[in-house]
Automatic annotation (TrEMBL):
<protein>
    <submittedName>
        <fullName>Glycosyl transferase</fullName>
    </submittedName>
</protein>
<dbReference type="Pfam" id="PF00534">
    <property type="entry name" value="Glycos_transf_1"/>
</dbReference>
<feature type="domain" description="Glycosyl transferase family 4">
    <location>
        <begin position="25"/>
        <end position="185"/>
    </location>
</feature>
<dbReference type="InterPro" id="IPR001296">
    <property type="entry name" value="Glyco_trans_1"/>
</dbReference>
<dbReference type="GO" id="GO:0009103">
    <property type="term" value="P:lipopolysaccharide biosynthetic process"/>
</dbReference>
<feature type="domain" description="Glycosyl transferase family 1">
    <location>
        <begin position="203"/>
        <end position="372"/>
    </location>
</feature>
<dbReference type="Pfam" id="PF12000">
    <property type="entry name" value="Glyco_trans_4_3"/>
</dbReference>
<dbReference type="GO" id="GO:0016757">
    <property type="term" value="F:glycosyltransferase activity"/>
</dbReference>
<keyword id="KW-0808">Transferase</keyword>
<dbReference type="InterPro" id="IPR022623">
    <property type="entry name" value="Glyco_trans_4"/>
</dbReference>
Amino acid sequence: MRIVFVHRHGPGQFVHLACHLANAGWQVSFLCEAMNVQLPGIRILRQRVTPPPPAIPFPQYHQQIGMQAATTLDALVTQEGPPDIIYGHIGWGSMLFARDVVRNTPLVGYCEHFYHAEGRDVGFDPGETITLAKRTQLRLRNSAQISTLETIDAGISPTSWQKSAFPECFRNKIGVCHDGIDIHRCRPDDKAKLTLPDGRVLRQGDPVITYVARDLEPYRGFPQFMRAAAKLSRQNPHVTFVVAGGDGVSYGIPRSDGQKWRDAMMTETGMNPARITFLGQIPHDQLIRLFQISAAHVYLTYPFVLSWSVLEAMACGAPLIASDTGPCRDVIRHGKNGLLCGFRDEDQLAKLMAETIAQPEKLRAMRQIARRTITQNFALQHCLERQTGLIERLAKR
């Protein structure tokens, strides 16, 4: 069987599934502009790199990406014939013209995020004004996804909350299945330890509060975390804060003054640099150790896509404090498998962090239930079996 994955920057969310199918004997190809890692046994079909907006409006930008992907796919079909199935991310227009290249090949779309002018990430910041121009921009930005949804045979969304963002008329063809969490790698380990850059060694049982995001920015509640951490650091001289994440902007927009959010929040809060360690973006094995030694892990997010990191932290049994926003409520039950707090309630967050590190034994059951949540609903092998089953059924059809 032959499958082509379509993603602007591979392997993205397809990393586990692509490797799983390649190991099962499938011929796996990636159609992408760039590949972040090299995967054994997987062929790369590179399309021309597209300049980012705002050089051109979103519809034309997505059409440009779609035409480049279609041209590359058409060359492959001319040379080898159509693949058995195509599975691609629908968010940037890469799958926009796939049906025009292959008339009968089943198409599966990865449905990650559909934009709304209210009720989700846009407008969540109380200081953001949603103008008519912004509303029309979001509608145009969704247009490529709507056109793609009309042509695909099935869609997959990683969580129920993310699926619920898509227009109701398309939800009947979108299933819910997460990419999967490796519960054998992400597991509790009482003997885990983490060595900081200054040589200090942290172990489970130490009063360590952790925070992780791809980049330290408002979409993942970094300013709120820093304000609460500074407050707690003044109350508790023993607590240590360890932060993993880069200084770029994954979502939203950069600061108008050009400062990094890390520098700006250190200045605003007056946090003692000796009390907090910034690790930057770290290897996955080190990230797992960070979760394993955490006495309280903080995950805050706008109503946006759910990060893998929070699920991996739960799989490692880290005591979790998360924002009371839609993507977190989809997975976390307050007092059962984690704790929820108001996204902007920095006093409540500081209080929950203090209580969590002060009573680790009381949270043992909560940590066990958190891991059980992941093993029962997000285990990698189970997710791969569900995804593979869908793909095989469509390919055979």
